[in-house]
Each structure stands twice: as structure tokens, then as C-alpha cells.
Amino acid sequence: MLKRSEGDLDLAARVDTFLEEKLLSVDPVLEGALLKSDAAGLEPIAVSPLLGAFLQILVKSTQAKRILEIGTLGGYSTIWMARALSVDGELVTIEVDPSTVGIAVQNITSAGLSDRVRVIEGLAADVLTSLIDDDTPPFDFIFVDADKMSSLQYLELCLKLSRPGTLMVFDNVVRGGRVLEVGCDDPGVMGVQKFLDHFAELGGVSVSALQTVGAKGYDGFAMVVVD
To answer: Cys bridge to 162: 47, 106, 166, 169, which one at CB 3.0-4.6 A?
Structure first.
């Protein structure tokens, strides 16, 4: 396992705070979404504010009109991305936990985005399969932040909901460096390793990955573009 010192992570967290203060405005809606999620007992695993802003920039730069999100949680990342949509755009987000769905819907409504966000409750693989069977139009941008065991399955299903130029972002693919572990028995790490190994035989896409370090610790994300 690749280890980092507590000092490294503490410094990274302080730099995150510094950059947030310099680059991002205070946003009562987003802060309220986090507070409501915390009060409801949701895991504090939403994307960081800087990553939320990064996702929003990606949506704007790709001029995406149709977004798919796997893993809604409290709707924090959903709000960041949906704000970049035009009024005729749509974001479809999938969440398996019924109680979490309720919090997400409240947060999305409070953000004034219920007209362009559709929250679907259910197992992601089942929902994605239904979308495929229903001939759902392809999505322009896809953000995957759900259980890592199913990363490869999500990739395969999302490719069927994509078009040339679709950009996908898969979060948490470094797992604190554990992605390097040979013979790891952690299901999440194993799922990411299987996902990454698949690209050696997968054609028709361009892919890269970046490591991240900050208030959320040491991790990273993969970016996939359909050719």
C-alpha cells in the first residue's frame, strides 16, 4: 500500500481551503445541501467544492445538454453540474438508497433545479439497463461516483448510452494508493483494478487518469472520451 504522511494530507487540506477561499464564492445553497446531508446522517463522501467546480467547468466546456450521474448521495455534485445546463438540458441521476433520494430531491428543489434534474431510485445497473432498453437518447457527459465494485459494469453500460464525444468521469480510482496492491481483497479496490485493466483490450475510447490530493484525502479520477 502506498502511504502518505499525515503532514502531507494536512498540508493538502489546508491548500484546498486556501484555493476554495481564493477561487470560489460562498454559496448558501451548496453549503445548505451539505448541512442537510450531514444532519440526515449521510456519509461525508460528496465531492470537494473544487472538484464540484471542476465538474461544472467540464460540463460547460463540452456544452453538454444531457448529463448522467451514477451515485446521487445528497445531490451536491448534482447541483454543481445541473447549474451548467441550459434551461432545455436534463440531468438524470441514479441513487439506490430511498432515504438518500429524499434528501437529494429536497436539496435539488431548494437549488431551483427540479425542472432539469430527474432523480431515479434503484440499483444503477438495473436503471441503466432500463434506459438502454427504452432507447434513451445518448448522454453528453457522465459522472460515475458509486460503488467501485461495479465500475467495469457501469463503464460497459454507459458506453451503450453514449455517442462519439461523450465524456465520462469515474471518481475514486486511486483508493489512497491501494490500486497498486497485488492480490488485494478489498472489493472496491478489486473493482477499480478490473476496470482499469479492461482498457488494455477496449477500443474506441481515449482514456487518462489523474491523482488528486486535498481535503478528501489521496485519490484520483479517470476520464474517458468515446472516439
So the answer is: 166
List CB contacts of 48: < 8 A, sequence separation 6 or more. 16, 214, 215, 216
Neighbouring residues of 8: CB distance < 8 A, sequence distance ≥ 6: 213
Burial of 139: CB neighbours in 10 Å, binned 0-12, 13-18, 19+: buried
Helix, strand, or coil here: 203? Answer: coil
Q: Which of 6-20, 42-56, 193-207 has the lowest mean pLDDT?
A: 6-20
Q: Cell numbers at residue 210, please?
A: 489523474
What 3-state DSSP class applies to 77?
Answer: helix
Please state the domain extents for the chain: 6-226
Q: Domain 6-226 falls in which CATH fold?
A: Rossmann fold (3.40.50)
- Residues 156/132, Cβ–Cβ less than 8 Å: no
pTM of the complete model: 0.95
